[in-house]
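Crash report, auto-generated. Payload:
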Amino acid sequence: MTQPSALDSVKRAADTPDERQPYAELGMKREEYDRVRDILGRRPTSSELAIYSVMWSEHCSYKSSKVHLRQFGTKAPQSEALLVGMGENAGVVDIGDGWAATFKIESHNHPSYVEPHQGAATGVGGIVRDIMSMGARPIAVMDALRFGGADQSDTRRVLPGVVEGISHYGNCLGLPNIGGEVVFDPCYIGNPLVNALCVGLLRKDQIKLATAPGPGNKVVLFGALTGPDGIGGASVLASATFEDESQAKRPSVQVGDPFMEKLLIECCLELYQADVVVGIQDLGAAGVSCATTELAAKGTGGMDVQLDLVPLRDPSLRPEEILMSESQERMMAVVTPDDIDAFMAICAKWDIPATVIGEVTDSGRLVMTWHGETIVDIPPGTAADEGPVYERPFHEPDGQAALNAATPADLPRPEDLRATLLQLLGSPNLASKEWVTSQYDRYVRGNTVLAQPADAGVLRISEAMPGAEETTRGIALATDGNGRYARLDPYAGAQLALAEAYRNVAVTGATPLAVTNCLNFGSPEDPEVMWQFAEAVRGLADACKTLGVPVTGGNVSFYNQTGSAAIHPTPVVGVLGVIDDVAGRVRSGFTGEGDKVVLLGETREEFGGSEWAHVAHGHLGGLPPEVDLEAERALARVLVEAAARGLLTGSHDLSDGGLAIALAEACLAQGVGCSVALTGEDAFTDLFSESAARALVTVRPESFDALAELCATHEVPCYGLGTTGGTALTVEGVLEIPLPELREVHTGALPAIFG
Amino acid sequence: MARVIVDVMLKPEILDAQGQAIARALPRLGFSGVSAVRQGKRFEVELEGPADEAALSDVRKMAETLLANTVIEDFTVTVEA
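Recovered output after restart:
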């Protein structure tokens, strides 16, 4: 057994200025450690070192990304809908009738690789608490997932565990999972991406913020007990010697308890209703360190904490470990002395342990004691906000020009387009994701209007809340991201991710309002990766400005690489939209016989980064499809207005796999076939090109003229292709596939692999 | 013929939500004096031959591969007398 080290108090730190400290083992650079010494005017105690090391980590401080992320603010479009922007736990958007929606996407990539089930489950738990901490009731989740090749053996370990973890946690919480993505590419082997999104609903005037104002107010830790979860590196601080290996056995895996989280949700909502919360913060990465420093920094500026009062699951935990513990299902609230009894009574009602561990002060210092001895005494802002900021060098990757020059122009075009369609439709990325999504509860709570495989999830706004009148409103949400496009051109790739999510929201009839993003990249210390990051952020910020949808928050995940091989740069973009009347939402696919099938948008020969090049030739080169944001905006206007006027009977976005896949999916949605004729010169390009800013819609024949007129007004190209009906997908003179054959190929692919 | 028992438990530092739920339920059912409960799994593996070192080594491999998730669980292998 390890001998615990002597308590490293502030007094002891002053007396032993030269004691060697394990800053490097905690991931701190020498300059960063020296800066801590400068700030404090002495060496930090081991508890202070724990706080600074974790608060100044890439994950918490955004030290490599900050200089680029600023563009989301400086280039932000004017938006009256934005109530809370970046910098809080999640952004909040005005969705009308007194309602607001809060949403955010966050990565849980590495934990999901180490322990897929628990990693993915706690990813859901973490993002749900972010949404709760804004004052909202979480109402739905979705997940954007990336795995290695479907045929790679580790994918068979990671994918089932991740899907199980998401479904377990989300289903236990009773939250519908309404969408997301599953993408396979060998570049993600060893670095799967698990990006979890949550959306919550609240009244506009009930927004809560992470702040600790008012000296004398109580600081309450409530929720699960604190255990040695996810401590990892902090153990080095708690052991007697740095060489001691026995302490390194502390797990880096966190295990969640969704039933505790469910209680926590209901408890928080009742606390908000009773109006007994001044400020609130969820405990995520960096646990108590993060919550105390951030709350104090945003409030009156000071806080006294008795760390020995933190209730523990494992009584042997040392203060350094308590500070860094990532135990799940915990929250911290600031409560006035007058309200504390009411607060505690509500927690007791929900069986939620709650403990007053400190008090807000105006001292400007965060002071923590351990059985009477002072172990932390720092200005909280120096840990929370004034971390290091790096202008990392970046340059275009050496092989980028060659990659862009290797266009798909020379790839042999297929003779048999029927076989190509079936090959693509049954490939892992385009195959039906039903095997995954059927493990999620999509309809719990009864407000789901559209869910997978629809282009976007749509929810009815229906909450029994005081002061809330009846509303017909709904919200729509979609996430998208294409790593291959971003690999070819990160600036355009990020814009295409936004454009697709924006389009997916618009095809349901909802008006896109706001953006969240999860930026998954390799190591920022690699200038080539940093270039990809810089370009992607610049592209996304520019596109948000043009489309008039502000970024409300999100998350950066760096170091997604194994050795020197980084993943494709993968910006995942989530777009939230609002629809005035959910009864007018448009389904994605053919809904009846005899409708006119219409293609909106222009098709060019664009195969760079396409599914066809990937599946048929294993090719990645050239440039991604051209970005035309004005065309995207015009298309969205047509889609939203046409839906509002009741013109559309179905609507589906064109993206991966082009028109061919969109037609197949539209047929399979309700089992309605179609007969269409192509309009271009080359059937292959017409069917498989991935040109952006396109959608496939259906209208009753008598509505076609009205749609055509609307398209003309907005200068959106509009082509009548044919008619719905029958039991086959027929492209005149090119191919005919009976729907049962189509369905078998589409739905059989993933079960055949993951069974 | 021999029977080998594999006991799988969450590592002591890992949160055991089910064990906690049981511990919370006990007082409600009138049982007192219990300070904590941890829940695990027990496997009874029937061997075709004797439980010699080679067979036990195989069982340990089975436990590592399938019966236990060694990222968060420990296991013990014992031969039933």
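Post-recovery validation: Residues 2-79 of chain B form a domain with the Mth169; Chain: A , fold (CATH 3.30.1280.10).
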